[in-house]
Amino acid sequence: MDASDSIEMHSEGKDARSQEEIGSPHLNGIDFNLLIKNADDGILLLNSDATIRYFSPAVKRLSGYEDGELLNKNAFDLIHPDEIQEIMRLYAEGIRVPGHVEQVECRLRKKDGSWSVIQATGMNMLHDPVVAGVIINMRDISEFRRMEHELRASEERYRYLVENLSAVVFTLDSQGVITYVSPALERWSGYKVQELVGFVFTNFVYGDDLPGLMASFERVIAGHTETYEFRVADKDGTLRYMQTSSRPIVEDGATLGLLGTLIEITGRVEADEAKRRNEEHFKEVIRRQIRYYRSGE
């Protein structure tokens, strides 16, 4: 027995009260229309075979359909083909259990042929002599899903950018524990990312440079942005000169840590050192020449 057969079996003896009767101004002493007239969420009342017996004004706004186009229409006709079988299965199972509540997300076909993403919560009230139907509360979450998709795409682009930068991006908490480091570090350090995250950054800094770097860290945590140069040891013990540029991470007035970039400057430092040695050598040659000429006077 498939879902549609099960639904047909439950349709016998259904309550056939009209849209006008269900939507009367007062239902059991409650001003029903006043409650739902301006509600953003749509409300459907379905018979057991999923035909629409009542719909609130919000349903018309969400779908674009008019009264005559929705009343007595099978709600499944509005569901996207890729999702109809699962929705029918859940509905068939739900109407067997009095009071059963089910929440789903699916696409709803609008009158203009476009699709809206809706979140719907259904409650089986077929056993209730007053309601005698399935109440569906639905809201359009298309914009939320679109923004979620764009955010996810933006995060993926940012992640791709960070992971392919030559510079290393890192974050530390306020205690100096590494909370994130980009994979670029693996290219030259010999360390894997997972070997660094969760450890204090001081574990990887050359000892002679540690006091100055700690002072820099404390200044950044105190609210400053600054650049600092120091040495780190690769996994194999090789020393490399690094330069960081760091700024504090502040949330709700509290400093949570710092965000920084790290670039290797070993080549630059060695070039500067070679230049300095050449300049010293040149100066020494000049001094010798001066001494030579003076000695011959």
Task: Outline the structure in words.
This protein has 297 residues and is an alpha+beta fold. Helices cover 36% and strands 28% of the residues. Strands 4-3-7-6-5 form a 5-stranded antiparallel sheet, sandwiched between helices.
Descriptive tags:
single chain; 297 residues; alpha+beta; Beta-Lactamase; 2 domains; five-stranded antiparallel β-sheet
Describe, in short, the structure shown.
The chain is an alpha+beta fold and 297 residues long.
Output the CATH homologous superfamily of the largest domain.
Answer: PAS domain
Order of helices and strands: HHEEHEEHHHEEEHEEHHEEEH
Form type:
rod-shaped
Tally of individual helices: 10
The Rg value, from CA coordinates, equals 35 Å
How many independent structural domains?
2
- CATH C-level class of the largest domain: Alpha Beta
Main sheet: strands, sense, barrel: 5 strands, antiparallel
Uncertain segments are: 1-27
CATH topology of the largest domain: the name is: Beta-Lactamase
Can you give the mean pLDDT? 82
Structural class: alpha+beta
Q: Topology of this structure?
A:
Elements: H1 3-10, H2 19-22, E1 26-27, E2 30-31, H3 32-36, E3 42-46, E4 52-55, H4 57-63, H5 67-70, H6 84-94, E5 101-109, E6 115-125, E7 133-140, H7 142-164, E8 168-173, E9 178-181, H8 186-189, H9 210-221, E10 226-233, E11 239-251, E12 254-264, H10 266-295
Antiparallel strand pairs: 1-2, 3-4, 3-7, 5-6, 6-7, 8-9, 8-12, 10-11, 11-12
Helix pairs in contact: 1-6
